[in-house]
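Bench log, entry 3. Co-assembly request; chain sequences pasted below exactly as received.
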Amino acid sequence: MDFAQSARSREYLDRLRAFIATEVAPVEARLHAERVKPFAQRSDVPGAAMWQVPEEFRQLQSKARAEGLWNLFLPDAELGAGLSNVEYAPLAEEMGRSPLAPVVFNCNAPDTGNMEVLYHYGSTEQKERWLRPLLDGEIRSAFCMTEPDVASSDATNMAATAVVEGNEVVLNGRKWWSTGVGSPDCKVLIFMGLTDPEAHKYQRHSMVLVPMDTPGVKVERMLSTMGFYDEPFGHGEVSFTNVRLPLDAIIAGPGRGFEIAQGRLGPGRVHHCMRLVGLAESALELAIRRGTERVAFGKPLINLGGNRERIADARIAINQLRLLVLNTAWLLDTQGIAGARSAVSEIKVAAPRVAQQVIDFAMQIHGGGGLSDDFPLAGAWTSARAIRLADGPDEVHQGLVARFELGKYQ
Amino acid sequence: MDFAQSARSREYLDRLRAFIATEVAPVEARLHAERVKPFAQRSDVPGAAMWQVPEEFRQLQSKARAEGLWNLFLPDAELGAGLSNVEYAPLAEEMGRSPLAPVVFNCNAPDTGNMEVLYHYGSTEQKERWLRPLLDGEIRSAFCMTEPDVASSDATNMAATAVVEGNEVVLNGRKWWSTGVGSPDCKVLIFMGLTDPEAHKYQRHSMVLVPMDTPGVKVERMLSTMGFYDEPFGHGEVSFTNVRLPLDAIIAGPGRGFEIAQGRLGPGRVHHCMRLVGLAESALELAIRRGTERVAFGKPLINLGGNRERIADARIAINQLRLLVLNTAWLLDTQGIAGARSAVSEIKVAAPRVAQQVIDFAMQIHGGGGLSDDFPLAGAWTSARAIRLADGPDEVHQGLVARFELGKYQ
Amino acid sequence: MDFAQSARSREYLDRLRAFIATEVAPVEARLHAERVKPFAQRSDVPGAAMWQVPEEFRQLQSKARAEGLWNLFLPDAELGAGLSNVEYAPLAEEMGRSPLAPVVFNCNAPDTGNMEVLYHYGSTEQKERWLRPLLDGEIRSAFCMTEPDVASSDATNMAATAVVEGNEVVLNGRKWWSTGVGSPDCKVLIFMGLTDPEAHKYQRHSMVLVPMDTPGVKVERMLSTMGFYDEPFGHGEVSFTNVRLPLDAIIAGPGRGFEIAQGRLGPGRVHHCMRLVGLAESALELAIRRGTERVAFGKPLINLGGNRERIADARIAINQLRLLVLNTAWLLDTQGIAGARSAVSEIKVAAPRVAQQVIDFAMQIHGGGGLSDDFPLAGAWTSARAIRLADGPDEVHQGLVARFELGKYQ
Amino acid sequence: MDFAQSARSREYLDRLRAFIATEVAPVEARLHAERVKPFAQRSDVPGAAMWQVPEEFRQLQSKARAEGLWNLFLPDAELGAGLSNVEYAPLAEEMGRSPLAPVVFNCNAPDTGNMEVLYHYGSTEQKERWLRPLLDGEIRSAFCMTEPDVASSDATNMAATAVVEGNEVVLNGRKWWSTGVGSPDCKVLIFMGLTDPEAHKYQRHSMVLVPMDTPGVKVERMLSTMGFYDEPFGHGEVSFTNVRLPLDAIIAGPGRGFEIAQGRLGPGRVHHCMRLVGLAESALELAIRRGTERVAFGKPLINLGGNRERIADARIAINQLRLLVLNTAWLLDTQGIAGARSAVSEIKVAAPRVAQQVIDFAMQIHGGGGLSDDFPLAGAWTSARAIRLADGPDEVHQGLVARFELGKYQ
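Structure output for the full assembly:
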C-alpha cells in the first residue's frame, strides 16, 4: 500500500507537464478559438470537415513520441514505458486535465484498452498486423460491444452474432457507442458477438478483429453525447451484415470473449478514473480562478454564500477519490485484475460522481460562460456524465461491489 | 389559495393536447429523425442551413392561431387568451413537454416576456410597431441584458451604456445569451444599459427597443449550451457600437430599466418553471416506458435495484414542485408581482433542480441512448441546467428568499 | 383543489396560538427547566417518577377542553370539532411546533388514530366503553401492531395470533413500539393478530380491544428512541400470553384487521406529517433567531458561509411540503382514503426528510447546545427520524408510490 | 505515502481483536443487557448510580495494561507504544467499533489529547503530578474550552479569563461540553482562558491545569447529547468562580493557549476520525447481518429496493475515508501538524458525514430496533453527529480547507 510516486514517475510527470504547457496547450487554444469563432464563418464549419484529423495532431504525436512521452500506459518496458499502474496514475491524471493530451501521448480510450487486449491475448500475427501500428500511432481502433436494441448493462443480452462456419467467422448485428469510428485513421474494430448459445454463460461469446474496410461493415451514423460529437474521433453506430473473416480474426479463439472483456475493461476503467481526477482538479482550478477574478455585490464571487464551503467539499472529494484510484492501481499492480475487481467498480462509481459535482460547481461560478464552449467545462461535464454509463452503468458496478461485500459474510 | 383548474383552462388543455398530438408531434418526430439521420448526409447538415426556420414551423403557427391556441400566456382578454396564471399553468406545463410547442403557440421565451414589457410599459407607437407583429407571430425578439465581461448576477455590474445625447440615445457594449437572435425572424432587441451613473442604484438604467438592422448592431457569434445551439433560434453574443436611436426608442423613459426588468422577469421565470414541470413529467414518463420495456438480468429495468425508489422520489418531487408553482401563480394573480417575489425565486431554484434530477434518472435508465439525440433527454437536461443560471443564478434567488425570510424577524 | 383556510379554521388557529402561548408554553418551559436542572438533583429524577403524568398536564387539558380546543382532529361535528382535513391542517401544524400541545388538545398519536378506528368500526358498546373516555381525555390507549421478531414492514409477516375459540378470542405474541403504554392512564390496547391463516392475505387478521389489566398482558420494558424515552407516555414492548377476551372485543368482527389498519393509518400518517411541517417551521425559526443573535468572526452566524442558502433551501422545502400535505388533506376530504393512498405515502416520505434536514441545520447553527436538551432540537430530530420508520418505513411507502405510478401505464 | 501496515501494527491489531472479542465484548453485552432490562427494574437504574464507574471497567483496564495493550496512541516508545500514526490508525479503527474499548486501552478522548498536551508542553512537575497517573489510568481528565454563552466556533470569542495576579492565576468563567467530568475518577481539568486581551490575537490565552477539587470549581450539570448522557463519563457544564492556582499551573507559561490548542487538537481530531472509520464499518456489518437474516415480501431485506446500492455506496465511502485518514496520519508522521493542517480538517469534515450516512442506513434496515438501545446504532449515530460540532464545527473546518486551497493561487 505504497502510493508514493517513484522518481521515474515524477520525472515523466515533469516532462509531461512541460510538453503539455509548451506544445499541446497552444494547439488546444487555437482549436478552441476556432470552435467559438464568429457566426458567419461558423456556419461553414461542421459537416464533413469536422471529421478530419488536423495535421497538427499528428505533428504533436510525432514530437511526443520523439521525446519518449509515448504509450506511457503500457506496463511492458519494451513496447511501452514499463510503468506500474501506481506510477502511471499521476501521468494519466495530468493528461485528464486536457481534452487533447491523451491522444497526443497515444494514451487514449479506446485504443489503450484495445492494445492491452492484443498485448495479452493476440497471436503473433495479430500483434504484428494491428498492435504494432496502434503502438506507433499510425492507425486507430474501436471497440464494438454495446448494442442499441438491448439493455447492454447485462452483457448476456448481447444479440450480435459471431458464428463459426468452416474456416470463417460470420458477424451480424448492430453496435453503437463505438468510440473512435469517426476518424479516418480508424482501421480496425474489435467486435464481440455470440458464438455458441449452448455454452456456459461466460463462454458463449467471441472477440473478433474486423478491418474497417471489410464488406458488410457500415458506420450508420455518428452519435452525439449531450450535444457533443467529440469529433474527429466520435462515437458511432455500426452495422455488421454477413461480415466474413478468416477464423484467425478471432482473438484467442472462439468463446473467450467474456474472459477478454473482463481483462480489458479493468485497466481501461482505471485509466478513465485517473483522468477524471485530473478533470476534476482542472475544473476546481478554473472555478477558483474565475471566482477570485470576478466581483459581484462588492466581493469576489469566491467569497459569496457557500462558495468556499463548496471549494472545501471539492478538495475533500477529489483527495478521497485520488487515494481510492491509487489504491486500485496498487491492487492491480500487486494482485492483478482478480484482486482489484471490487476496487475497479468502486472507483468507476465514485470518479464520475466527484467530477460531475466539481464541474457543476465550476460551471455555476462561470455563469452562462460555464455552459458555453468558451470554457472546457460543458465538455468536461459531458465526459464525466458519459462515464456513468460507459463500460457499465453505475448500477451494475454498485451491484458488483455489493456482491463482493456480501460475499465476505458467507 | 384555490388551484383548481377552471373549466376554461381544462377546455384549452384538452384542445392543446389534441393539437400537439396530431399536429406538433409528427413534425417533431420528422425533425428529430433528420437530426439523427445517417452519417453521410449528416455531414452536410449544420452550418448556415440550420439557422433557417423550417416552413413547417410557420404552418403550425398559422393552424394554432386559427384554432385560437395562441398567446395563451397573456392575461389580457383582447390581445391574448385572458387566462389567469393559475389557468395558464397547466397549459404551459403541457407545452413544456415538447421542445417545439411553446413556439407553435407563440408562448415561448423570450418573446412572451418581451411582449409583456411592451404591453405594460410600451407607448402606443411602440405597441403598434413591435407588440402587434410579435402577438401576430410575424417577427421575433431578443432580450439583451447579460454581459460577457462582468458577473451579471449582480445587475449593478452592467457595463453597457445607453447614453442620452440630445434627441438620441446612444448604445455601446456587449451582451450575450441573447436568446433568439439566431433566427432570421428576429427583428427587435430589448437592450438594457447604463444611462445615469449618478442616479439612485435602481434608476440608473434604461431599456431600449433596438431594430435588429440598426447600424452598429452585430451578432458576433452564436453560443452553444452544453453543445447545443438550439437552432434555429439560438443564443447570441451581440455587440453594440455607437448604436443611435431616437429617444422614443426608450421604453417608459430613461432610468426605468430596473423597474421594467423586475416586472418582466417575474412572469417570465414563472413560465419557465411551469414548463419545467412538464419537462420533468415527460422525462419520468420516458423513464417508466423504457424501464418497463427493456430487460436485464431477467427483469424489466424498472424492477432492478433502487429504480422504483427513484420513480417514487421523482413523483414526490414533481408533485411538490407543481404545487409550489401553482401557488406562485396564484400569488401573482391575487397579489401581483410584489406579493410573489419570494415565491418566484423559490420556484426558480426548485424547478430546475427537480427537472435535472428526474431527467438524469431517465438518462441513466436509457443507457447510452439517454445521452444521444435519439431521445429528447440530453436536450431537456441542458434546458434545465441552463435555467439554473438564466434570469439569475440559483445563488441570487436563494439570497433573495433568505432576505425575505430574515425580514420576517425584523 | 382549494386549500384556502376557512374562517372557522382561522378562528381556531388564533385561539390555539393564544392558548399555547399563554398556557402551554410556560408549563413546557418549566418542565424543560427541570430536565436540565443541576446535576446533583438530576441524579434523583428518572426512574419511576418520570412515568407519572404531571398534574399540570391534566389541568391544561381541562382548560383546553373548556375552551372548545378539543378533539379538533375529528371531522364529526358532534363528537369532535367537525373540521375537514384541510381545515385541521394548520391547527395540527401549529400543535406540531410544541412537544406538549398535541396531548393538551387531545390530538396526539396514537389516540387520534385509535379513536378514529372506534368511531368508524366500533360497535355501540365498544364506543361507549372506550371511545367516550378517550374523547373525554380520561384514559389513553395504545396500538400494538409492530413485532420485534419479524420485519414488520411486511405486515403479512405478523406472527402474533388472535385465535377464535368458541366465545372467546385468545391472543398470543409480542409487540413493540406500542406508543403510550408507559402512562398510568393507558387503559386499552388495540392488538392486531393472525386469526385465520387460510383466509385471503388481507382477511387473515383481526383487531382486538384489550383492556390493559387483562391477565396475560405484560409491559416487558420501555424502549428508548435515540436515547429518549418520551416519558411519561413512552414506547413499550408488550407480551401477550394466552390473553382471553370475549368475542365482542374484536373490532368489526374477525378477519377485518387489514381493512381497519388501512383506514386507521391514513389519517394518522397525515396528522404526523401536518405536525412535522410545524416542527420544521419551529426549527427554522430557532435557527434564524440563534443565527442572528450569535456572532463569530465578526458577523452574525446567519451571514457566514452557506447559512443563508440553507435558510432559503429550508423555506423552499417547507413550503413545498406544506402544499403537498394540504393537497393530501384535500384529497382525503374530497375522495376519501382510497383517492389519497399515493398522496399519503408521498407525504409520509417527504415530511420527515424535510424536517430532518431543517432540524439538522438548526442543530448545527446552535453548536453544542443544539444537541443538548437546552433546545428542543435533539428531541425534534428524533421525532422526525422515528417517523421514517413508524407507520411503515420510507421504502415501503416509496414502493407504494411507485406501484401507483407504474399502474398509470397499464 | 506508504500506508502499508507494519508487522508491529498488524501484531498489535491481532492481539487487540482477540482481547476485545474475549474480554471486552462480554462485558459490553452484559452492560447493554442491563440497559434494556425490563421496565420494573429500569425505573431504579439511572440517577446517581449511573455515574459510577463499574468495577469491571477497572479490571479490563488492568488486564489490557498487563498485556501491553495500553497507551497505544502515544508515539513515545517509553511512555506509550511508540507507534506512528499510520501504525496506530488500524488499532484506533478497531477500538472505534466498540463503545467501551477506547477506555479499556486508555486511548479515549479527551484523555489522549490531554496526555499529549502534558507530554509536549508540560513541565517536569506537571508531568509527574498529572501525566504519570493519566498514563497509568489511575485518574481521568477533562478539557474545558467551549463556552455556553458565545459562539465558540470562533475561538477568539472566548470569554472565560485566566488572569495573572502576582504568584497566582485566577480563573473565572463558564465552560460546557467538558467531556469526562461526570466520572468520579476525573481529577484534573485543562482550562483555557483569556490572560492578556492586549496581546496578539493568538497569544492572549493560557491553558491551566486545574485540580478538580479546587475551590470555585463546580460541575453545574451533566449535558445530554441527543438524549444520551454517555455515563459514567459524560459531558458537563462547569463554572469557575475565582479559582486561584499557583502560576506553575499554567502549561508552558501564560499566552501559549492557542499554540497548545492547535497542537492538541490535531492528533485528537485524527483519533476521532480513525475511530469513526471503525464505527462506520461496524454499522455496515450490522446492516448486512440484519439485512440477510430478516425477510420481507419474500426476500431478505438486503435484496429489496436500493439496499444493495446503499451497501455499495457505504463500502465506497468508507474505503475513501479510510484512505484519507491514513494519508493524514502519514502527513502527521512525516511532516508534523504543520504539514497536516488542511488534511486534518478534511477528515474532520468527511469522517462524521460518512459515518452518519452508513449508520442511518443501518438504522433504517433494523426498523424500529435501530432507533432503540437494543443495537448500538442510535448511540453510534449520536457520536458521529456530535463530532460534526466537537473540536470545531464542519463549517470552520471547511473554511480552513478553502483557505489553504485558495492560498495555492497567491
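Residues 170 and 269 of chain D are 30 Å apart (CA to CA). The domain at 7-134 of chain D is CATH 1.10.540.10 (Butyryl-Coa Dehydrogenase, subunit A; domain 1).
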